[in-house]
Design goal:
Blueprint: H1 9-18, H2 23-46, H3 55-71, H4 81-96
Helix pairs in contact: 1-4, 2-3, 2-4
Length: 103
């Protein structure tokens, strides 16, 4: 399914959720995205723009551990980078409102 072309994010998101079926992987994504949001807020409030270098490590670090060690698949980012980035934030929202389980 990773070679499938998606015509919209609406088509992509169910695939994204399927690629994140392992609860530990989803938890790690949630932690990473939370840290990304906290880091961006810290940068904006403090004006320490040099901290932005850490964003990819924080965001992708947790996500990739989840994929390689728990989900046992390749992150969707490799084939669908923009949809995957959007998918991470939509899944984050869905976790916050209870549509996607992490407990």
């Amino acid at each position: 399914m990773s070679n499938v072309r998606f015509n919209s994010f609406r088509e992509f998101y169910p695939f994204y959720l399927q690629e994140h079926s392992n609860i530990t992987c989803r938890r790690l994504h949630f932690v990473g995205t939370s840290l990304v949001i906290a880091l961006i807020l810290t940068v904006v409030v403090s004006g320490q723009w040099a901290l932005l270098w850490a964003l990819p490590f924080v965001g992708y670090g947790f996500a990739w551990v989840g994929h390689f060690f728990f989900e046992h698949n390749r992150p969707a980012t490799f084939k669908h980078p923009l949809y995957s980035l959007a998918g991470d934030f939509v899944m984050y929202r869905d976790i916050l409102i209870g549509r996607v389980r992490i407990i």
